[in-house]
Amino acid sequence: MLTSLQQHKWNLPHSVPAKPAGWDYGYVLKGQAIGRTREQLIELVQRGAEMSYVWTPDTPEPVLPESVPFLIDAFRRNIRREARNTILFGAGLVVFDVLTAIVLHEWSLVYRSFLFVLGAVFLIDGIWVYAGSRHYTQEDAMSDAATARFAAWIKNKPLSGYSFTLAACIVVVFVIQSFLENSIEVAGLVKPAVWNGEIWRLFTATVMHANFMHFWMNLLALVSLSKIVEQTVQRAYVPLIFLLTAVVGSVFSVLLYPNSTSVGASGGLMGLFGFITITAYFDRTRYPPKYLRRMIEVIVLTGALGVVGFAFIDNAAHFGGLVAGLLLGWFFVKRSENGKLVTLGGSAALIALASITAFAVYRMLLTATHR
Questions:
Q1: What number of CA atoms fall less than 13 Å from residue 292's CA on the CB side?
Q2: Distance between alpha carbon 3 and the CA centroid of its chain, in Å?
Q3: Closest Cα to residue 329, out of 288, 357, 299?
Q4: Long-range contacts from 279-284, C-beta under 8 angstroms, 24+ separation
Q5: What letters, b where the CB count within 10 A reaches 16 and e where it falls short, cover 302-325?
Q6: Beta bridge partners of 54
Q7: How far apart are CA 95 and CA 92, in angstroms?
Q8: What residue ranges of the chain have pLDDT lower than 70?
Q9: Which of 44, 81, 101, 267 is most solvent-facing, going by the fewest CB within 10 Å?
C-alpha cells in the first residue's frame, strides 16, 4: 500500500528507521523509533497522538498506521472523540448566545449573531462526523491520513506572486476601511446605487469587508484555497478564477437581493471552491482519495452556514460564485491547458484587481476628504 501512495508528493515518505530489536510494537516520530506495547500503541492512536509510522510483529519494517488492521477501531474512537468535542463546543456557543438573548430580551441576537451561526455549524459538523464514524473503514482511515498529509504539504508551501498580490489588494483595502466610518456605503455593493448606474460597485465590493472577523476569515480561506490551486493546477488560475467568480457573485447578489448592501470576497472564494471541486471530479490523481467528497461536504456545510446565518450572509453571492467556479473549472479542465494563455489571463486579472483596489481606495479617500 505504501508503494502506491508514494506516487504523490505529499505522500513521499521521510527517512524511516529500521525496525528496532527488543520491541514487537512501536511507532516512529520525527525519525525516532519508540517502542511500545500493543495496548499502548492502540491507546496512542485512540488519543490522536502524532506518529509517522508504526511497526508490529506482522510488518518487516515500519508502515503507515492506517494500514494496520487492528488499529482501525482506535482510529474510529479518535474520530468519535473529536466529533463529541466539536458537538459540545458548538452546543456551548449556541446555548451561550440563546441565554444572552434571553437575558437581554433581544431575540435578534440569535439569528443575527455570528457566534450562534458558528456554533450551529460546529454542531452540524460534529453530528455529521459522529454519525459517519459508525461505518468507518480502513479505506476511510487511509483517505483521512492522505488528506491530512496533503493539508500539511499544502500548508508548508509558499504563496506565489499571483496569490500574494491578490491577498495584498484585500489587505490594503481593509486597512483603508479601518480608518473610515462609511466605506461600505461609499464603495460597497449598494444595490440601488448599482441599479442607478454605478456598475463599478460590482467590482469594488469584492475586495472590501464588513469587519475584522469577516476580513480575517476570508483572508485565511483565500490563502488556503490559493495554495491548493497553485500546487494542483496552475498558479495563474488563482486571480483569474477569483475575479471572474467574485463578479458573478456580485451580479447574483444584485439580482436576488436587490435592496440590500453587501461586501466581501466570499463570491470569489466560493468560486475557488467550485473550481477545485470540478478539478477533483475530472482528475482525481491530483488530490488524495475521496477529496472530491470532502469538497462537496465543505460546500454543503457552507450552505448550512448560509441558511442559519441568512440574516447577514449573502447566500446569493455565495451561490453565484460557486456556480461560476464549477462552470469555469469545467471549461478549463475539459480542454487542453494552454499554459501561456492561462498565464496571460492570470496577469490580466491581477492588473484588473490592482486597478479595482486603487479605485476603491480612491473613492473612499475622496469621500473622506469632502466630508
A1: 10
A2: 29
A3: 299
A4: 279/232, 279/233, 279/329, 279/333, 282/329, 282/330, 282/333, 282/334, 283/333
A5: bebbbebbeeebbbbbbbbbbbbb
A6: 27, 63
A7: 5
A8: 1-8, 11-15, 335-338, 368, 370-371
A9: 81
